[in-house]
Amino acid sequence: MKKRNFLPDPDGLLLIDKPREWTSHDLVAKVRNHFQLNKVGHGGTLDPNATGLVILLIGRGTSASAKIMGSDKTYEGEILLGVETSTQDADGEILAEKDPSGVTEEQLRTEMKAALGDQMQMPPMVSAIKMNGVPLYKLARKGQDIEREPRFIHIYQFALREFNSPRLTFEVQSTKGTYVRTLAHDLGRRLGCGACLSELRRTQSGRFSLSNAWKMEDILLWNRDELAKHIIPIHQI
């Protein structure tokens, strides 16, 4: 049995640039074990193949969980037109393909603008939302498609950055709980060709920016004193 650490945790937030294929839980476990911390959480998940800003909550910083998770988020990413998948991103099984060559930049901008504002979004089956205590993604693996309740979201910005058919890059700013892969999927449906999310990177969470985040390979070179120097204290949250 691992010996309990009685040293007090530093209190506050640690901004991490999550690498691809890591889960938010992986980051929590790695940082907790590496620094022998007692209390570590996170302020919002990212899909394993997404990258970017994940906020770890350490010590009394875990009390800010609701505030951090409830903040608006900003992402940048890439959408692949002409392909629909079971997960609404490039990791899923291809369900349908259609030639997207007729889609123009003007059409894209029009449909992306139409996605702005208040709306109800249907969460995807492959998600961590729980139904009777079971995450939907576990039910999806068994081939089940469960009726879900749509969620209220607000899209502040859905901007086209570059279009080189069949791929486009974008930036989106939204309220908490927004599934960007569903946003991509719905865009493809409106364009009539289908689409899936091929890349995603979170750049902002509330007032905290990816530009101030640390890479895991650097964090794992620190000792506890160096960790404390890089933590955002509670009074700045």
SSE layout and pairings?
Layout: E1 12-18, H1 24-35, E2 40-42, E3 51-58, H2 65-69, E4 73-81, E5 83-85, E6 94-97, H3 105-114, E7 117-121, E8 130-131, E9 134-135, H4 136-141, E10 151-164, E11 167-174, H5 180-191, E12 195-205, E13 208-209, E14 214-215, H6 216-219, H7 224-230, E15 232-233
Parallel strand pairs: 1-14, 3-12
Antiparallel strand pairs: 1-3, 1-15, 2-3, 4-11, 4-12, 5-6, 7-10, 8-9, 10-11, 12-13
Structure, explained:
With 237 residues, the protein is an alpha+beta fold. It folds into two domains: 12-70 and 206-236, Pseudouridine synthase (2-Layer Sandwich), CATH 3.30.2350; 73-205, 2-Layer Sandwich (Pseudouridine synthase), CATH 3.30.2350. The protein has seven helices and 15 strands. It has helices spanning 24-35, 65-69, 105-114, 136-141, 180-191, 216-219, 224-230, and strands at 12-18, 40-42, 51-58, 73-81, 83-85, 94-97, 117-121, 130-131, 134-135, 151-164, 167-174, 195-205, 208-209, 214-215, 232-233. The strands form three sheets. Strands 1, 2, 3, 4, 7, 10, 11, 12, 13, 14 and 15 form an eleven-stranded mixed sheet that branches. A hairpin with a 2-residue loop joins strand 8 and strand 9 (134-135). The chain is elongated. The mean pLDDT is 91.
Mean pLDDT: 91
Helix and strand content put the structural class at: alpha+beta
Show unreliable segments.
none
**CATH 2nd-level architecture of the largest domain:** 2-Layer Sandwich
- The percentage of residues in β strands lies in 25-35%
Largest sheet: 11 strands, mixed
- Give the overall shape: elongated
Give the tally of β-strands.
Answer: 15
Sequence of secondary-structure elements: EHEEHEEEHEEEHEEHEEEHHE
Give the termini distance in whole angstroms.
Answer: 35 Å
Total domains: 2
What's the helical proportion of residues?
10-25%
Please count the helical segments.
7
Instruction: Let me know the CATH homologous superfamily of the largest domain.
Output: Pseudouridine synthase
Nearest-angstrom radius of gyration?
Answer: 19 Å
List the quaternary state of the chains.
Answer: single chain
CATH topology of the largest domain: Pseudouridine synthase
The CATH class of the largest domain is Alpha Beta
